[in-house]
């Protein structure tokens, strides 16, 4: 929280400070609709946790993602949050269905030509973008976003979005911006303290709009 003992500390520095203050295990009370959290700084504890969580584990997901799928667009997602945010039996059913496909090397191998095609396009793009010092432009991160999203699309959608090769398409950039908003805003709303569960903040509305674009 602003003004608190750990305010503005880097994530690693914050965890180090909490360990020094509270020892190898501590409980952080939940605020603003968030559940209590237990932190353990002993890696051996993780084995105990994983061996005792049962076949239907409960793990914290992305609440805004869950809200969008179940409350805003149940017509599309049938009130399912998917493997990212579902828990319990619903998660187990999805995992059971996905594992036989995801864990087969033969299935993974089938995507190599498409992934390689994306990589080759990106290499060509890099050669075009380099300046006389062989350095990338200041906005090269945006090009990296295009490459990663294109790579995901050929697996998840089994089609090319042409994000790398069609620079001037405003719809492509709109999708990339929506993904960037998702990562930044989900962190602010789901990890950091936020009142979005009580009041629809501007950042919450912006994230819902980003989900609309991605959907």
UniProtKB/TrEMBL annotation:
Transmembrane segments: none
Cofactor(s) the protein needs: heme
InterPro entries reported in the protein's UniProt record: CYP11_CYP27_families, Cyt_P450, Cyt_P450_sf
Gene3D superfamilies from the UniProt entry: Cytochrome P450
The UniProt record lists the keyword Iron: yes
Keywords of the record: Heme, Iron, Metal-binding, Monooxygenase, Oxidoreductase
PANTHER family found in the cross-reference section: CYTOCHROME P450
Family membership: Belongs to the cytochrome P450 family.
Protein name: Cytochrome P450 12b2, mitochondrial
Provenance organism: Pseudolycoriella hygida
Top-level taxonomy: Eukaryota, Metazoa, Ecdysozoa, Arthropoda, Hexapoda
Name of the gene encoding the protein in the UniProt record: Cyp12b2_2
